[in-house]
Amino acid sequence: MVTQVKVPMLPESVADATVSTWHKKVGDHVNRDENLVDIETDKVMLEVPAPVSGVLKEILHPTGATVGAADVIAVIDVANESAAAKAPAEKPSAVKEEKPAAITKETKSAAATKETLSPSARRAVGELGVDANNITGSGKDGRITKQDVVSQTKAPAAPAVNLIQTMGDRAEQRVPMTRLRKKIAERLLASQQSAAILTTFNEVNLKAVSDIRKQYQEKFVEAHGIKLGFMSFFVKAAVEALKRFPVVNASIDGDDIVYHGYFDIGVAVSSDRGLVVPILRNVDQLNLAGIEKAIAELSTKARNNQLTVEDMTGGTFTISNGGTFGSLMSTPILNPPQSAILGMHKIEDRPVVVDGQIVIRPMMYLAMSYDHRIIDGRESVTFLRTIKELLEEPARLLLDI
C-alpha cells in the first residue's frame, strides 16, 4: 500500500510555491511526522512532514519545481513497514545479538539529533554533508543552529552551482533567485514606482539612552531575563511620534487615506533567505521589556526560517537598523502600503556642541523616507525631530510629555 505526500494548504494570496530542499531520497526510510521537504513561498518556508512511516518510493517534483496546494509531490510505500512489523523475529546468534542493540542505540541517537536541529541547521547539514551527531548545539535546550553547523565544520563543501568558464580562468556563476528574493525585488521596485518617496535626515545624541542602559542593564536582565537594547527605545519613541502625527501611521487605498488606530511596527531583519520584516503588534501596549522580548522572538524565528505569514502581514510603520552592519547613512525604501520608514544607523562618538562647549557624544544619523503624496515636508521633518527629542530626553517617554 502506498500513501501520497501532498503540498499543504498555502497561505492566503499565495498561488504556488517552489520545492526548495528534499531531505530524503528515493529508497530512504522515513518516520511519520519527519520533515521530508521544504517548500518555499513568496513569504515563508514550509516544512512538509511524512504522513506515515515507510520507504520513500517516488519523488514527483524535484528541487526547483513549482507546485500548488494539494499537489502530490511524493509517494511513500508503507507495505515494507507493515511487513517488517508482522515478520517473525529471527532467533539471533550470540554474535548477532549485539547488532540490534547497536542499531537501536544509533537510531535513537539520530532521532534525538533530528529533534534538536533547527530547519536552517538541517538544511546546512544536508548541504555540507556533515554528521549532526558531531555538532554541539548552542541554542535553547541544546538546539543546533545553522551557525553551529557552519562554525564547527572544518572544511565545508560549497553547494553545487552552475559555473560558466569564460576567457581562461575567469568564471561566472549563475544561480536562480529564490522566490523570496524575487518577491523582495518586485515589492521594492513597485514601491519606488508607485510612491513619491522623499527622505529627510537628522541626528540624535544617544548619551542619555546609553547612560540608562549602563546604569540599569544588570537589574533589567535580572527582572526581565533579557538585555535592554537601543531598539526598544526607538520603537517607543516612534509610537509616541506616530500618535502625534497620525498621517505618518496612515496609508493610501485608492483615492482614500486610511488612518490606523493601532500601532503595528515592522522591524527589518536580515535572514539567510533575505530581508524580512516581521511585525510587532499593538506596540503601544508594550513596555521596554515586552518590546525587547518580542523582537528577540521574531529575530530567532527569522534566523531559523520559522516566520509565519501572520508574523509578516500588516504593519503601519517600519524601522530598519542598517547600523548593525556599519552603515553611517542611507535612504530606506518604503514597505508598501506603509507611508513611512525610519532608518537607524551606526552609533559613532563625534564632537558636538552642547551648551556652548565642544564635547564627545555617541551620535547617530537618522533617516526617514516618506510618501510625499500624503505626508508633507513639515510633518515629516517635525515627526523625525520629535523622535530625536524623545531619545535625547527619554524621561519624556515615561512622563508622556
What does this protein structure show overall?
There is one protein chain. The chain starts with a strand and ends with a helix. The protein has 401 residues and is of the alpha+beta class. The radius of gyration is 26 Å and the shape is globular. It has 3 domains: 1-88, RNA polymerase II/Efflux pump adaptor protein, barrel-sandwich hybrid domain (OB fold (Dihydrolipoamide Acetyltransferase, E2P)); 110-176, no CATH class; 179-399, Chloramphenicol acetyltransferase-like domain (Chloramphenicol Acetyltransferase, 2-Layer Sandwich). It has helices spanning 79-86, 98-115, 119-128, 146-151, 179-194, 207-224, 231-244, 288-303, 309-312, 377-392, 395-399; strands spanning 2-6, 17-22, 29-30, 35-40, 45-49, 54-59, 66-67, 72-77, 162-166, 170-174, 197-205, 250-253, 256-259, 265-267, 269-271, 274-276, 279-280, 317-321, 340-344, 348-354, 357-371. The chain is built from 11 helices and 21 strands.
Determine the mean pLDDT.
Answer: 83
Could you list the spans in which at least 5 consecutive residues all have pLDDT below 50?
89-112, 155-160
Strand content: 25-35%
Tally of contiguous helical segments? 11
The CATH homologous superfamily of the largest domain is termed Chloramphenicol acetyltransferase-like domain
Q: Can I get a quick summary?
A:
With 401 residues, the protein is of the alpha+beta class. It folds into 3 domains: 1-88, RNA polymerase II/Efflux pump adaptor protein, barrel-sandwich hybrid domain (OB fold (Dihydrolipoamide Acetyltransferase, E2P)); 110-176, no CATH class; 179-399, Chloramphenicol acetyltransferase-like domain (Chloramphenicol Acetyltransferase, 2-Layer Sandwich), CATH 3.30.559.
